[in-house]
Amino acid sequence: MMNVDELYTELVLELYRNPVNKKILNNVDTSFRDNNPFCGDVVEIQVKFNNNSIKEIGFQGEGCAISQAAASVVTEIVKGKNTEDVLKLQIGDVLKELHLESLKNNPVRIKCAALSLKVLKLAVLKYFGKKEAS
Ligand code: FES
What we know:
Number of strands: 3
Bound molecules: FE2/S2 (inorganic) cluster
Structural class: alpha+beta
Mean pLDDT: 93
Radius of gyration: 14 Å
Strand order of the largest sheet: 1-2-3
Helix content: 40-55%
Low-confidence stretches: none
Largest sheet: 3 strands, antiparallel
């Protein structure tokens, strides 16, 4: 098991202090908000699409350094990607970007890193649902 110092890498702390894509968007195509039920930490992601590709993305959130750093990473790596590719993303892709691959062996803290990816995928699925309904 990693100790706390190893969990909070330079990159995690940097993104926690200076998040990327932490902004509120107007007139979005979809958004979703969810929390980690174990701690209550929350992430909301808003997305604008252009022909099924992510044109603009922003997040809001509160929580631990890992969950908030992961929100920056997730929103950054999906820019320009189409919805199909977004739904294929795995937690391993996020951990790699965070330089936290060993978190795979930490069943509690991996949920911190996974929250944003889950929220983003649910936002995309919500978008599909809206399109089908219209
Ligand atoms: Fe709550 Fe990390 S401790 S998401």
